[in-house]
Amino acid sequence: MRIKILIVLTLILVSCSSKEEKLKPIIEPQIELVPLTNNFIAGDTISLLFKTDTVVSNLKLRLKNAFGNVLLNHLKINSDIIAFKFPMSYSRLAGPCHWKVIQEEKTLLKGKLNISTNKAKETHIESYFGPRSVTAGYNDYSMLTIAPTDVYDNPLDDQTPVTVKYQFLENISELNIETKNFIAWYNVRATTKSGRILVSSECNSTTSKELTTIVYPSNATGFSISASSAHNFADGNQILTLKSDIIKDEFDNVVSDGTLVTFVIRNEKNAHLYTIGTTLGGIAEARTLHPDKASRWEIQAFVTGAAESNVTEFSFTPAIKDYPVYFSKGNRNIDIGPFESFMKQLVPDGILLQLDIYDENGAFIETKKTTTKDGVCNIFLGEYFLPSGTYTLKFKAAGISKEFTKNIHDN
Amino acid sequence: MTIKLNKTLYRTILIVTFVAINALVISGIGAAWAFMNTGADKTSMLHLEVPMEDVYKPSLTWENLKNQGRPMEQQALGEITNDYMNAWHVRNIAYKKNDRYGVEDFYTDSARARLYENIDLNVKNNNWYKRTTLSHNSSLDFYTADGTMVVFKDYNVEEYQETYEGEKLLYTEKDTTSYQVMMLLEDGFWRIRHLKEIPTPVDTTKVVERNITDNLDKIKRLKGINYYPKDSPWDTFGKRFSDSILNQDFQIIHKMGLNTIRVFIQYEDFGKNKVDYKKLNHLKTLLDVAHKNKLDVLITLFDFYGDYDVSNWTLTHRHAETIIKAVKNHPALLAWDIKNEPDLDFESRNRQRVLSWLNQMIENVKKWDKTHPITIGWSSPEAGIELADKVDFVSYHYYRELDKFKEAHDVLKKAVPHKPKVLQEYGLSSYNGLWNLYRGYDENDQFNYYKKMQDLLAKEGIPFMFWTLYDFKKVPSSVAGRLPWKTKKQHFFGCIDSLGNIKPSYKILSNHWMFKLGEAKEKDDDKK
């Protein structure tokens, strides 16, 4: 019994005791690099061979390039030579590749290989062109950037020649530039004519795709406008058309369609009206309604911030010569009209009529406004609004004023 | 006889099993309870974006922005810098987890293929890497007219890397590499198109030499104290910060004839990488008050920090950088103590990792501040030999038996003969009560301890900083846990009790003994 307990106790004790690690003796091998060139071309098969006195399993090769690290296990070639074969991602990346032979934490040997870009195989070209639109003239340009790479996507070395071609109308130009900092670049200047510039590039007989930039016309310059209408009666009905001539930039390019033109109208009372139009084929057109009373308009057009036109005039002669006014129901009901236009036709609805009411001492009381419908309009001065008495009534419509002094009463 | 024995045996076994089962049940419930109360923060469900500066923030400076293309705009530069840093970060994470996550956001199609190949190789070999970059110095080569491509060089990128195989850390390495980078603006992201290693140019910039002799001289005459305010121990810069309390305390310290105080900056408390400016102002105030009272200040840059993980390196660097640059010209500043007792983390955090962190931090501090010496507050004289060639003076703490102090110090002296050695913390708690079964030391023992110690220090000419001014009423649980028999001791290390009465040791630690020390020290210097 006691022995059993003793056994159990020892077992417990033993199971509790911590594991003691036995250190393996580390054999440090003498290794030496089997000499080879330090210069490779991207895509070469690269293997490093080492001569060693003892082959130990924990020898590793650490590679490092710009994109990362890897630890490689060795291959045994024969009893005293071991080899490390570079993975493709390392043998294909141009640039320095650092290697270290490592045993546990210890670096036994280290070195550096130079892998250069592969010029022999085909070249790839990435080209960028921007901005994709420029303004005609001498200031603007688009930049063509060419980033040629070798077949393994390594940027080519500085001073690689690149040919740039660009075409505008009949002209095709070609020039040679060189890469620097991964890229070759050229500023394609805008032309004075509007149109489309095409570019392409070539490097080691690989050509890029075609890229394009659009040369838009520059800012508009001074232009002239004219006003026209079916007649010049101020009938409040007819439409006046304002039209520019062909608006051009300083290089004689017709401005882009859709250029906004603002027509500003000033009448004889210095009031401003405006209307807008956009260009189509360089011509802007805008419309506005005739006034309803005689007026003289001065019209000028602007392309905001860029250009202005001449000032043109347009005079309107009165269309309504006179209008009758009828009083009834104790002079409280007033019928005005019919308003007749220049051919005795009824005026369009909406001619404004204004009535100013003054008492007998000439003190202003009230203004009433109404508009015509079917050529006539009506005002009723209710008894709660205007007590009986004598009043001066001044009418104003279509630029014609009339004045009446009436006794207003309840029958 | 046997029957009787068996009976007792069975009884014992029964009782023991009963107690054991109970203990198991209780610990089981406890573990379940603890499990229920731990785990991910609830907000993690929302997958909120973590600001980049809270995970990775190496220093990056643009040295040159002139180029033949388009003039660089501030806005675009910010975006490029940000995405370039993101590219490094996702790559570091990708190599850490061997996961492609995020790579496609910051590398173009053909560039990411290279990373994927690497990840696949590393998965195959069961390798993974913890890596970070510490500093970048970039110089613009070209920025295209339409603002969609940029080429720049990134010089002297300091990279630190830990290589693992499975769970095993194989080795760590640090290197400095220069790169040339092409980035393209695609879908609103700046993505790396080409990345090529280029030769690192010979640095022609004139490096300002460090000049620490003045402050190092002061170290040799150092007589000081580890300082925490009476009512806010381990929280000097907290809510109870008051310059009048500091002033009172510093007057006492000055009157005692001491010339230096040691204060602690707690990493999280100070706002980690985004240093809390209020706390920083408190630190400046403390330095001002110390200067007024003719005291020098030894600042411990990291206290209550125990991670050392590579992924946090840059954050700790920004923490230290902000603090150092804010106060490095203050006349009261004496020296930088990088970390309090880092050797205690050797076991839990891996010695190599802790040392790498310290080493890097020392290098950085040397770069940021050229006039103040650097030390590390090791917890024992034996640890003092670590990084001894890197620090300007060796600091260690000693709370063990008095008799063995000289021996331990001599061993260190032999190992590190040419650098000043400061006894940065020592002392004896005068707690003698229930929790140590009245087997502790009382105030007279403390007096005797200091008497012997001060004599020894004076004789040997060892600069010292004792622990501490006051007895503390409250000691935070983060210092020594919650268990009263462990934490009680921490309350009674002062030479003034928590009510403000002087304890016997106060006299020993005051003037009289100090003069003797000063003289002895000067004699020692003469001999040299």
How would you summarize the topology of this molecule?
The complex is a heterodimer of chains A (411) and B (528).
Chain A: H1 2-16, E1 31-33, E2 39-41, E3 47-52, E4 59-65, E5 68-73, E6 75-78, E7 81-85, H2 88-91, E8 95-103, E9 106-116, E10 124-130, E11 133-135, E12 141-149, E13 161-168, E14 171-178, E15 184-189, E16 195-203, E17 206-207, E18 211-216, E19 225-228, E20 233-234, E21 239-244, E22 260-266, E23 272-280, E24 283-289, E25 295-303, E26 307-318, E27 325-328, E28 333-336, E29 352-359, E30 364-371, E31 377-380, E32 389-397, E33 400-408
Parallel strand pairs in A: 2-9, 11-18, 20-26
Antiparallel strand pairs in A: 1-3, 3-7, 4-5, 4-8, 6-7, 8-9, 10-12, 12-15, 13-14, 13-16, 16-17, 16-18, 19-21, 21-24, 22-23, 22-25, 23-24, 25-26, 27-28, 28-31, 29-30, 29-32, 32-33
Chain B: H1 2-36, E1 59-64, H2 74-97, H3 103-106, H4 109-125, E2 127-143, E3 149-165, E4 168-186, E5 189-198, H5 213-220, E6 223-226, H6 243-255, E7 260-266, H7 277-292, E8 296-303, H8 313-327, E9 333-340, H9 346-349, H10 351-368, E10 374-378, E11 394-398, H11 405-415, E12 421-426, H12 443-460, E13 464-466, H13 477-480, H14 484-487, H15 504-509, H16 511-527
Parallel strand pairs in B: 1-2, 6-7, 6-13, 7-8, 8-9, 9-10, 10-11, 11-12
Antiparallel strand pairs in B: 2-3, 3-4, 4-5
